[in-house]
Design a protein that fits this description.
The protein has 10 helices and 14 strands. It has helices at residues 13-25, 45-52, 66-75, 96-106, 177-182, 195-205, 231-248, 251-274, 278-294, 317-323, and strands at residues 3-9, 33-39, 57-61, 82-86, 90-92, 110-119, 134-137, 142-144, 147-148, 151-152, 163-164, 172-176, 209-220, 312-313. Strands 1, 2, 3, 4, 5, 6, 11, 12 and 13 form a 9-stranded mixed beta sheet that branches. Strands 8-7-14 form a 3-stranded mixed beta sheet, with no helix packed on it. Helix 1 (13-25) links the parallel strand 1 (3-9) and strand 2. Helix 6 packs parallel to helix 7 (231-248), helix 7 (231-248) packs antiparallel against helix 8 and helix 7 packs parallel to helix 9. It is globular and about 50 Å long.
Length: 335
């Protein structure tokens, strides 16, 4: 069994200096090998890797192709049975690879899995990007075991059992290489954000399962490329969420749910406008405009009527969150 731990880097020399040592230490050569795909960095990242870790394979891309394009191009050059896609701002722990790999080997129906993601800034709390596994509500809003919108829980062992998910976090995601290539990799239209949810949804449409294995633990800093208050990040999230819904929803629900979602997005844009956040308003407006343009290039999935809907919440997580005053926790949600 060959496992490739693949880190995608773009001007992340500082992150590599801080986090790569843990990946090297806890990636035994007899279990896996490390590859760094560089998205055209200009900060000396490649030179630093070559100087300090000359045995690590580096795939140099000519420019920044984003999360989707970078991984898609790099993984065409990586031969392994499994890929672990790992952000450069993640510290891993002893045995994390064995735990994930053993689960995948014992469960051939599982195509994708993730470890438990805790915050590197506060190691007693879950990390926003993936926590203990991802879910989705009726209108396409993602949430996690351990993180409901802006409410991040403390890790008290409440989500330590493996559980089937809707999506796994791209910050630390293990996937069968054959499945990744069969799916055609990430959707290049996305560039970054929501791409892992789309990938997992498409895997589920083919009959595969997605799981969280919390006994494997990593610590994620988060926000290393785009901060959470970035209009660019807001734009990508709004645009890509609509693209994901258009691609993967069953035909009898597609237009109804997308219409509802566009109304909700419009209300968000109005709030941004009324509160003077012009750049955020413009980001939502541009996201919808570009969604309408890009969807003409995309064919919805022909398998969307048969999706395994485990991890899909029939209600509105947004409504539940605001009615609770932002205090909703995952264990309060009834699927």
């Amino acid at each position: 069994m060959d496992i490739a731990v693949v880190l995608l880097n773009w001007n992340g020399k500082g992150m590599l200096e801080r986090y790569l040592p843990s990946v090297v230490t806890h990636t035994p050569a007899e279990k896996a090998f490390i590859v760094i795909a560089d998205n055209g960095s200009t900060d000396g990242s490649v030179q630093w890797i070559e100087q300090h870790y000359p045995d690590i394979q580096v795939i140099e891309l000519d420019k920044n192709y984003g999360f989707t394009g970078g991984y898609n191009r790099a993984l065409k050059e990586v031969e392994a049975d499994y890929y672990i896609l790992l952000n450069t701002d993640v510290e891993v722990t002893e045995g994390w690879i064995d735990t994930l790999a053993s689960f995948m080997e014992e469960h051939p129906e599982v195509g994708i899995c993730q470890p438990k993601l805790l915050s590197d800034a506060d190691r007693t709390s879950f990390e926003y990007a993936g926590a203990a596994g991802g879910f989705i509500d009726h209108y396409g809003y993602p949430f996690c075991r351990g993180r409901i919108l802006g409410n991040i829980e403390k890790d008290l062992g409440q989500y330590d059992e493996p559980e089937e998910l809707f999506w796994a976090s791209g910050a630390a995601l293990m996937i069968r290489s054959s499945l990744f290539h069969h799916l055609g990799g990430f959707d290049d239209h996305f560039f970054a954000h929501m791409e892992e949810i789309d990938l997992c949804w498409r895997a589920k449409l083919l009959g595969y399962q997605v799981w969280a294995i919390p006994s494997a633990v990593v610590y994620h800093l988060g926000g290393g490329t785009l901060p959470n208050n970035s209009p660019r990040k807001l734009y990508l999230n709004f645009r890509n969420n609509l693209l994901m819904l258009y691609k993967n929803l069953p035909s009898n629900l597609r237009w109804k749910i997308i219409t509802y979602r566009q109304i909700l997005d419009g209300l968000s844009a109005l709030v941004y406008l009324l509160t003077g956040k012009w750049n955020y308003f413009k980001a939502v407006w541009s996201a919808h405009k570009d969604y309408r343009k890009i969807k003409k290039e995309i064919e919805p999935s022909p398998f969307s009527e048969e999706c395994n809907d485990i991890g899909h919440y029939e209600g509105s997580i947004l409504l539940k969150y605001y009615l609770s005053g932002g205090k909703t926790t995952f264990d309060q949600i009834r699927f």
